[in-house]
């Protein structure tokens, strides 16, 4: 909301993601590739929820918000696969809470994905576009 004060009258968007196992275990972004390897071992063979939240604010007032969920089941991953994956993808993986990019090599981590691709990449685009049309920002 503070950022909207810097842009009076403008609609400012904020987005973020969280990741949770079905038992409630929450994951933060890994700080190192070794920590990311541990995360992948913890997610291996399990289903998790990836939540993508977005909020629209103008002049410090929340206009709209949305939380999308994708259910993602990782296949069982070997240590050899994890090491190879991290070696090829590198520290760019540390920018996302899941440590994967399904639009690239990361799709190989999964055996099942339910939900919007846009939620997975961190921007629930279809609900955002509907809001922007409703708000008159883009044409209907």
List keywords for this structure.
Maf protein; 140 residues; single chain; 29% helix; elongated; five-stranded antiparallel β-sheet; 31% strand; alpha+beta
Would you give an account of this structure?
The protein is α+β, with helices and mostly antiparallel strands and 140 residues long. The chain has one domain (2-134): Alpha-Beta Complex (Maf protein), CATH 3.90.950.10. 29% of the residues lie in helices and 31% in strands. A five-stranded antiparallel β-sheet has the order 2-1-3-4-5. Helix 2 (33-43) packs across helix 3 (79-89). The two termini are 27 Å apart.
Mean pLDDT over all positions: 94
CATH architecture: Alpha-Beta Complex
Looking at CATH, which topology would you report?
Maf protein
Q: What is the CATH first-level class name?
A: Alpha Beta
Any idea what the radius of gyration is?
A: 17 Å
Strand order of the largest sheet: 2-1-3-4-5
Helix content range: 25-40%
Low-confidence stretches: none
Structurally, how many domains make up the residues?
1
Number of helices: 5
Instruction: Please count the beta strands (DSSP E, at least 2 residues each).
Output: 5
Overall 3D shape: elongated
Class of secondary structure makeup: alpha+beta
Largest sheet features: 5 strands, antiparallel
Strand-and-helix sequence, N→C?
HEEHEEHEHH
Q: What is the distance, rounded to the nearest whole angstrom, between the alpha carbons of the first and last residues?
A: 27 Å
């Amino acid at each position: 909301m503070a950022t909207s004060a810097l842009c009076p009258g403008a609609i400012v968007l904020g987005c973020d993601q969280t990741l949770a196992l079905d038992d409630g275990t929450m994951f933060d972004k890994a700080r190192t590739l070794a920590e990311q390897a541990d995360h992948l071992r913890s997610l291996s063979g399990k289903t998790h929820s990836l939540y993508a939240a977005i909020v629209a604010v103008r002049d410090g007032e929340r206009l709209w918000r949305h939380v999308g969920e994708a259910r993602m089941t990782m296949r069982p991953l070997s240590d050899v696969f994890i090491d190879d994956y991290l070696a090829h993808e590198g520290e760019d993986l540390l920018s996302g809470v899941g440590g994967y990019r399904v639009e690239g090599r990361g799709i190989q981590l999964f055996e099942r994905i339910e939900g919007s691709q846009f939620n997975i990449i961190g921007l629930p685009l279809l609900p955002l576009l509907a809001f922007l049309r409703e708000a008159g920002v883009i044409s209907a």
